[in-house]
């Protein structure tokens, strides 16, 4: 994995062999061959334009839906810093949000501006780039319901605006072009009173606390809900609640969550997920599909 090819000059931070485990929720896995934290959009765009097209590029948010395999991620991983995390109201119902802004920041700024409808982002511990890519959703709403458009830097370095229709959204899936980095998004809600928005945010936060292992090393929902089923119920029925492999465990609290209890390797976590899939298939005949993005190579 450690081919040391020449990379274009940058104004931001470019690190060779950067460990990714500290940057993802599971706290496991290998290093990025290169980790790039661009100084601004031009820095990102110029870098991608000049980069050998054969080098793979991947965006990283808060790593809240990701297993980084133990052999690390070849090519360049792009992480957006503070300069990409601004959230500004555009008018009485829309907000322009940087690709690196968190869900809590977006929903809090929307509340302050009296814009309702994006409270659900309060409960998803990711960034705008991750929400756009994953069609993140909760409590009956998804990113596609509020997204007007987003600005991306394509793998070629070209900047482009994509509408929600361009992204071909389905459940927890988008057709975001491979290697594209989401640098901002515009969300539309509706006019509402900040106090009412706060009540909804509090309700969502309390519901989360009750149902999910929020302070654990995890990757959120492991599998997509199959048509007509709840993944957690299939996993429970297959007897997998609490199932362990080394330090990897199926959560007792919410069995569509996998946990790293301490020092699990990503290989343990992924193999546990595959074991769950096999048991669910044997018990109910349903093929669970991974929601968690598994990236990089095995050791
Ligand atoms: C406790 C917990 C609860 C969760 N609850 C929910 C929930 O209710 N609903 C839900 O939908 N999800 C949930 N998740 C999963 C996760 O938070 C979402 O999928 C979120 O959208 C991921 O955002 P992220 O920025 O952390 O992306 P990452 O996990 O870093 O990346 C996910 C994918 O997005 C891509 N990506 C990230 N940033 C960019 C960017 N700027 N440009 C291009 N691609 C990018 C990555 O390459 C990867 O393919 C939960 C996770 C946890 C840990």
Automatic annotation (TrEMBL):
Pathway in which the depicted protein is active: Cell wall biogenesis; peptidoglycan biosynthesis
A GO molecular function held by the record: UDP-N-acetylmuramate dehydrogenase activity
Keywords: Cell cycle, Cell division, Cell shape, Cell wall biogenesis/degradation, Cytoplasm, FAD, Flavoprotein, NADP, Oxidoreductase, Peptidoglycan synthesis
UniProt-listed PROSITE patterns: FAD_PCMH
Active-site residue list: 172, 221 (proton donor), 291
InterPro entries the record matches: FAD-bd_PCMH, FAD-bd_PCMH-like_sf, FAD-bd_PCMH_sub1, FAD-bd_PCMH_sub2, MurB, MurB_C, MurB_C_sf, Oxid_FAD_bind_N
Cofactor: FAD
Swiss-Prot/TrEMBL GO biological process terms: cell division; cell wall organization; peptidoglycan biosynthetic process; regulation of cell shape
HAMAP family to which the protein is assigned, alphabetical: MurB (MF_00037)
Family: Belongs to the MurB family.
Protein name listed in UniProt: UDP-N-acetylenolpyruvoylglucosamine reductase
Species this chain originates from: Sphingomonas gei
